[in-house]
From TrEMBL, chain A:
Signal sequence annotation: 1-21
Record-linked Gene3D superfamilies: Cytochrome c-like domain
Chain ranges of the Cytochrome c domain: 45-157
This protein's name: Sulfur-oxidizing protein SoxX
GO MF annotations, alphabetized: electron transfer activity; heme binding; metal ion binding
Keywords: Heme, Iron, Metal-binding, Signal
UniProt cross-references to PROSITE patterns, sorted A to Z: CYTC
Database matches in Pfam families: Cytochrom_C
KW Cell inner membrane (keyword) present: no
Automatic annotation (TrEMBL), chain B:
One CC-aspect GO term: periplasmic space
Domain (Cytochrome c): residue spans on this chain: 79-164
One Pfam match: SoxA-TsdA_cyt-c
NCBIfam families xref list: thiosulf_SoxA (TIGR04484)
Gene Ontology molecular function: electron transfer activity; heme binding; metal ion binding; oxidoreductase activity, acting on a sulfur group of donors, cytochrome as acceptor; protein heterodimerization activity; thiosulfate-cyanide sulfurtransferase activity
Family: Belongs to the SoxA family.
Quaternary structure (record): Heterodimer of SoxA and SoxX.
Protein name as it appears in the record: SoxAX cytochrome complex subunit A
First-level EC class: transferase
Signal sequence coordinates: 1-22
Amino acid sequence: MKRQTIWGLALTASFASAAMAEIAPGDVVYDEYGAVAQSLTGQPGDPARGAEIVSNKSKGNCVACHQVSALPDVPFQGNIGPALDGAGDRWSEAQLRGIVADAKKTFEGTIMPSFYKTGPYIRPGDGFTGKAPKGDLPPLLSAQEVEDVVAYLMTLKE
Amino acid sequence: MKIRTLAGSVALVALTGMATWADPAEDKLVINGEIEMITHTEKAPDYIEGLSEQYSGWHFRDADTRDMERDDFDNPGMLAVDAAKEVWNTADGTEGKSCASCHGEPESLRGVRAVMPKFNEAKGEMYTLEMYINDCRTERMGAEAWGWNDADMVNMTALISYVSRGIPMNVAIDGPAAPYWEKGKEMYYTRYGQLELSCANCHEDNYGNYIRADHLSQGQINGFPTYRLKNARLNSIHSRFKGCIRDTRAETFKEGSPEFIALEVYVASRGNGLSVEGPSVRN
């Protein structure tokens, strides 16, 4: 029943979104389990770009904490979190979007960073310079980058 | 509800599955075949709620790096100790005195490193080893203070650690130290920066695991100053703190800041019972 409504919403959203601006970090709607039904941009994600963001040290750097067997060429994959193999089977697209955007809404208190959020932070810095930022900080990933990562995660099936 | 349990069990499987290759190395450190080091305890002090056992960072380095610490001829940090011995005996400042003029042999300071930082009654504040050294220079020798990360300073802390090697860390946390310890503890659990990570997230919850290429240790400071293969020099405690906070995409604190002095008191106490190991070798 509940699921039906969420899908319904998602559908309306994706029709409307072509004309819509992307959803700002503060306006993302999470359900009670932390899932985000509506695409942040209305544009389909690009799984190939998503794979790059997952591997790239200065982007998502998801492999710092997660192993992804589908990326055997990426060295030094960490094991702070569970392996992402099969994530596309375990989770729906909406759930994955919620986990990537702000994992703390799905896993309370998790060590996993919130990638689509602009604060509040304690002593935020300007990247890895150790200095205070000059202006407002953009989220760690842009709306489209989140969509690309979600599209990639959806390809991880066992 | 359903989601929580599912993810929980997945995470658990992953963690137990990894435990075999991620554990701290089972090994024993004896330096020069004679100084027996306590690098592991079965039980952390009761006031460190988050740790059951204690491990020196030595256990998390690979076999080659661990070996470099077994013999002083293989430990690059010993060059700094030799350099500091020379400075120890060299007069400096308006009083024409050297450290040796008053302290005799460096060995007279044996045990000092194990109780640092400690509350300086005369000054009415918490003092680190660096602060004691600089007071002697400015107030007793008429010499200029050394910068926190100056080679002379870090080398001297290496010499003073060296003469205490093997002695268990025993930093006081009660009496006048208590407010510093409390503040340091609060910092230890604060999730700093845009990545929102606390010291505990990495060094308490995840020691033994890998974050990218790095095998996470407990972030103990009994081995400082550390000779890091990565930057090929000795590193002070506060410069390590600075780097770890910076890596959370945070505005960090300065060496010698009240924040880092308090954090040092707390982190040192997490290692009470582990041997003073500086200068140690890390990557």
